[in-house]
Amino acid sequence: MLAIALVDRVGSGLWASVSVLYFTYVSHLSIAQVGTLVATAGAIGIAGAPLAGRIADRFPLTRVVIAVQLLRAVSSLGLLATGDYALLLALSAVGSLGDRAASVLTRLYATRVAGPDRVHYQAIHRTVANAGWALGGLAAAAALALGTTTAYQWLLTGDALSFLASALLTLRCGEPPSASRVVTTSRHAAPSTRPATPWRDRTYLAYVATETVLFLDDAVFKVGLPLWIAHATDAPHGLAPLLIVLNNVMVVVLQVPLARFGTTTPAARRLLLPLSAAFATGGIAMALSAGGGAVTATLLLIAAAAAFTLAEMLHATVSWELSVALAPGAAQGAFLGVHGLAQSAQRSIGPLAVTAAIATGPVGWTAFGTFIALTCVIQHRLVRDRLARTPLSVPPVTVSEH
User: Fold this and answer.
1) pTM (predicted TM-score)
2) What is the pLDDT, as a whole number, of residue 182?
């Protein structure tokens, strides 16, 4: 599954950095059309996480993973075959659904296979995934140097082939044990009690709401830092991509070592307090970077990027562990699917939040970091009682076998 993650992310790295350019120069869409397409596909894709989680509780997980990878491959290949705007929009939406579904299914597979070692696995998985993104991005940059339509088409083809390769590799993976699927025979009646639903679990829904806020670090690197450097500091504009490189290098080097501080559920919950400090530090450093010269601004922006990257790594460990620990074993897919909504929603909320921080200046960044820091503290208190209780015991969904 780690090999699959590497192949998948290399393909995604090929496409993610050039998708907007492809629609502009190959499909000949206007800026308004590209913006509408990306926004609409992203909004539809939000449904992919809960939908995939629900299905994974009812069918063999490896088969669901294969189906999703094939769906993503068809979507990518379909983009190559048409220039019709309506079809491009539909295919992009299907691809977005598949992307969010694959993210949840990968985590669910790891949860079922790795068991108590899931935090360590998660750290290795993020390291591999970031390496894949970097390799795909470098290959895309090299291809773009050609500046031809064929180069764009080959990048999209590479993305599709990565999904096909992932589906084939999944065939070699064993089906993990699942508490949500119990085989019954004609001699044993299936339990009639329905599995728990995350939509009626107020604590879990509140937890997902706080998670949406904690995922905002993603928007800092994609939107916040480049715009802040360009419009509010004396730092050179070329610093922005270097800070993204710093982010990737830190994750590759430090994610696994840091994971040892959150290998148990109580330990993961305790990490919310240093996570709070990391977010606050990042916001303050961003605010101070507007008041100095080029050298001072550069140093403060590097400090801010390091702090937000540290927050990203700590949150990845905490989020992986708590999202599983708070979910009933018999409905992990459904609950993790709903948890996936947090990251999907952040993709829409995040750019708005960081642009608001930029618009209000240093005070905005201080408020931004402080708000996320307080959310960490709120989440620390929110999950305490739930984690102290015995895990929910819910009868599983059954598959009859006569």
Assistant:
1) 0.78
2) 46
- Sign for the CA dihedral angle at 278, 279, 280, 285 comes to positive
Whether the predicted pLDDT of 194 surpasses 80: no
Q: Which two tokens stand for residue 38?
A: 């990306």
How far apart are the C-alpha atoms of 132 and 138, rounded to whole Å? Answer: 10
State the CB neighbour count (10 A cutoff) for residue 401. 8
Tokens, residue 228: 């802040």
pLDDT digits 0-9 by tens, 133-169 = 888 878 887 887 777 888 889 989 999 999 999 999 9
Beta-carbon contacts of 149 under 8 Å, excluding residues fewer than 6 positions away, are: 25, 26
Q: How far apart are CA 120 and CA 335, in angstroms?
A: 21
Beta carbons of 109 and 65 less than 8 angstroms apart: yes
Q: Closest Cα partner for 138 from 242, 10, 31?
A: 10
Residues written for the chain: 402
Amino acid, single-letter form, for residue 196: A
**332: nearest Cα among 113, 178, 114:** 178
Dihedral of CA atoms 198, 204, 208, 211 in degrees, nearest 10, equals -150
> What confidence tens digit (pLDDT) does each residue in 321-354 have?
999 889 887 788 889 889 888 888 887 788 888 8
d(CA 160, CA 76): 5
